[in-house]
Amino acid sequence: MSDVAYKPSAAEVKQLREMTQAGMMDCRNALVESGGDIDAAVKALREKGIASAGKRSGRGTGEGLIATYVHHNGRIGAMVEIGCETDFVARNEQFQAFARKIAGQIASSGDLRFVSEEEITDDFRTSELEIYRAKAAGEGRPEAMLDKISAGMFQKSLADTVLLNQPSIRPEDDGKTIETLRAELSGTLGENIEVKRFARFEVGAE
């Protein structure tokens, strides 16, 4: 058996996304894990609650709570608003634990700028791509490949700057992204769960 991970095509990811309404990254990961077996990928997403969670993503989140975290030295803190559909879920222990987890994640991540990729501004994207393109050129990469290389470097960097793209810092989460954890919780609780906004504070930082 080959040790090389299966690389799903954009068409396969799109097909699975249309079938399940799950996020693109979750679809891609499911296809990699299933070796390209669409049916197995659908089954895996449904078992995780991600497929059904995707269908809830358009529903309003007028309830929720604000969670905070302050590091033990008192110099770093974070605040996050997590939305849900009902006050009943807002009082749920799993929901509240998730909110606290996200606040701790934010406090530990100094480079965060956005909740999701949808929030990335054109100016930020253009600036970052130019930086990565110049870096690739400085490394002697072929001119014809610079745009593709810089795009790949930019996508990889989003794990630092986009909250939902980040792997959880908690060992028990086994490297799952915040988006995957959000989707799993949504599937478990039966409501749309949304990370709405956040703020991070550090003494002495601008």
Please provide a written account of the structure.
- The chain is α+β, with helices and mostly antiparallel strands.
- It has helices spanning 10-20, 24-34, 38-48, 50-55, 87-90, 93-107, 122-138, 146-161, 178-189; strands at residues 63-70, 76-84, 194-202.
- It folds into 3 domains: 10-55, Ubiquitin-associated (UBA) domain (Helicase, Ruva Protein, domain 3, Orthogonal Bundle), CATH 1.10.8; 63-114 and 162-202, Tetrahydropterin Synthase, Chain A (2-Layer Sandwich), CATH 3.30.479; 121-160, GTP Cyclohydrolase I, Chain A, domain 1, CATH 1.10.286.
- The protein is built from 9 helices and 3 strands, in the order ααααββαααααβ.
- The protein has a 3-stranded antiparallel β-sheet.
Mean pLDDT: 86
- SSE topology string: HHHHEEHHHHHE
Terminal Cα span: 52 Å
Radius of gyration using CA atoms only: 19 Å
CATH class of the largest domain: Alpha Beta
**Approximately what portion of the residues adopt beta-strand conformation?**
5-15%
Q: Give the assembly state of these chains.
A: single chain
In short:
The protein has about 210 residues and is α+β, with helices and mostly antiparallel strands. It folds into three domains: about 10-55, Ubiquitin-associated (UBA) domain (Helicase, Ruva Protein, domain 3, Orthogonal Bundle); about 65-115 and about 160-200, Elongation factor Ts, dimerisation domain (Tetrahydropterin Synthase, Chain A, 2-Layer Sandwich), CATH 3.30.479.20; about 120-160, Orthogonal Bundle (GTP Cyclohydrolase I, Chain A, domain 1).
List the helices and strands and how they pair.
Elements: H1 10-20, H2 24-34, H3 38-48, H4 50-55, E1 63-70, E2 76-84, H5 87-90, H6 93-107, H7 122-138, H8 146-161, H9 178-189, E3 194-202
